[in-house]
Design goal:
Length: 184
């Protein structure tokens, strides 16, 4: 029989709805992901269940509270990320929050949202040429352009050159004629 545990985390009233979510949607998602029971009463969140899962859920909630105290709205994306990476080293939302690349025209910060994106942004910062490989929709082009615009504004580069493949990526036409210089 697993070792059961119960713990309590104090959540200030101004952060309670942000952490719990609309109709406690965030709490329900975390309960399901961690296999624990969470009950919110009088500014306290009681967590009960198997010891390891209670510790992981408590750590996740502490991080969400710190994230909320920094002034961020917590979305389902952050809940999913924390539940999926719970217990992994270096997968903190707070670490990702510190790495602001630039701001959009409306003032919204552009930041990596996952550790993979953070490694990609760090590789762009540290190396002259960086190849980003991965599935569509994971932010490769968006983050690369944000980094390019930041470098242009800081006058680290004098121009930005946008390119695209000359042929369809799925076609196998062999090597195109010419040397490396003419292909670039």
């Amino acid at each position: 029989m697993p070792d059961n545990k119960e713990t309590t985390i104090e959540i200030p009233a101004e952060h309670e709805i942000n952490i719990a979510g609309y109709l406690d949607s965030h709490i329900k998602k975390m309960e399901k992901a961690f296999g624990v029971m969470m009950v919110s009463r009088n500014g306290e969140l009681h967590i009960s269940g198997p010891s390891r899962q209670v510790d992981a859920a408590g750590q996740c909630l502490e991080e969400l509270l710190a994230y909320s105290q920094r002034g961020h709205d917590i979305s389902e994306q952050e809940i999913n990320y924390l539940c999926a990476t719970a217990g992994s080293e270096g997968n903190s939302l707070l670490d990702l929050d510190d790495d602001c690349i630039c701001h959009t025209m409306s003032g919204r910060p552009v930041k990596p949202k996952t550790q993979g994106q953070k490694r990609y942004v760090d590789a762009i910062r540290d190396h002259m040429i960086t190849f980003g490989l991965g599935p569509a929709g994971t932010g490769k082009t968006y983050l690369a352009m944000a980094m390019a615009i930041t470098a242009f504004r800081k006058e680290e580069v004098s121009r930005i050159i946008l390119t695209r493949p000359a042929i369809e990526a799925g076609e196998k036409l062999g090597f195109l004629p010419g040397d490396l210089q003419s292909k670039i």
